[in-house]
Amino acid sequence: MKRIALAVALSALGVGTSVAADMAVKARPAPLPVAVANWTGCYLGAGGGYGMFNQRREVVAPVGDFATGGVSGANTFAMALTAPAGSVVTPNETFGGQGWLATGQVGCDYQFSNNWLIGAFADADWTNLSGDHSLLGAFRGQQSMQWSWAVGGRVGWLVTPTLLTYVTGGYTQAEFGGVNYANNFATTALAVTNPPMALALAATGNPGLQLGSQRFDGFFIGGGTEYAIGWLPGLFWKNEYRYADYRSASTNIICTICTAAAPGPVGQTGLAERQHPTVQTVRTELVWRFNWSGAPVAAKY
Which tens digits make up the pLDDT trace of 159-168? Predict the structure, then answer.
């Protein structure tokens, strides 16, 4: 009897195991997409940075009539240097400077296809970039970049839900301040004679030669990263490198306190500087996004 009962139990166990083996196993649920912050919206930013500029410069005889006393075009340094109007008086030279900057920005972005972002912005920099500047080997001074502004766009890729990398470019304008030239000679006065005019420049100090301020138009390109700071929603940290190239422009050189034999051209030297500046900057900013708490979008990383 015991043997019969044991056989029945083993048979029932085998049937149960077979049925369990034949039961369908449910598939594991697919992982949910990662929720990321919605970068679509507008923002304000402010920060600072460091920059360097290069100036490729030529001294030129500008096209124009500096006639005084009935003598047309003869009363200029350009004629004294036997250079016709518009010709290069000195070869190309390169000057440079560096310094700090403060920056402010406003812009808007649009996030699409999950990880992509496009945007537009405008910003302004206030700078103290400055460096040495010389003229004809006889005079020296300091030139500085005073401010710049830019409008442009950017295209970015979300590497993670909170980290954006991007490239940027657009239009920019900058102003470089004027230069007050000092005489390089410590003991000997410099006299420049150009009949019927003679300029006597002081041995030391400011001889009255000045280069006026000038605005330059150009373009910029760059790139950077932007990161969402987790402990305060809406606050982001941006770092960017930027290269700006400005078109050449000519600025007249004037003489304000030179002594001139009449009928010399008052205030005019007949020379100009043609400059081509390029600027490189690195900047870091804190950015406040208005829409950071908005509805998230789904993306896979």
Answer: 999 999 999 9
Q: Rounded to whole angstroms, what are the CA distances from 152 to 155, 163, 186?
A: 11, 21, 49
DSSP state of 201: E
Place of tokens 């710049």: 148
Answer for the pair 158, 236: CB distance below 8 angstroms, yes or no: no
The residue-averaged pLDDT of 198-226 equals 81
Pair 165, 159: CB distance under 8 Å: yes
Separation in Å, CA 21 to CA 15, 17, 25, 26:
10, 6, 9, 13
Q: Cα separation of 124 and 119, whole Å?
A: 17
Terminal-to-terminal C-alpha distance of the chain: 67
Half-sphere exposure of 43 (CA within 13 A, CB side): 30
- Check if the beta carbon of residue 237 is closer than 8 Å to that of residue 229: yes
d(CA 80, CA 134): 20
Q: Position of tokens 């005889």?
A: 61
User: Per the structure block, which two tokens stand in for 2?
Assistant: 């015991």
Q: Are 60 and 89 in contact (CB under 8 A)?
A: yes
Residue 291, phi then psi, degrees to nearest 5: -110, 15
Question: Tokens 């600025």 map to which residue?
Answer: 251
Q: pTM of the entire structure? A: 0.75
**φ, ψ dihedrals at 133, nearest 5°:** -145, 135
Maximum distance among all Cα pairs of the chain, rounded to whole angstroms: 145
Q: Which residues pair with 159 in a beta bridge?
A: none
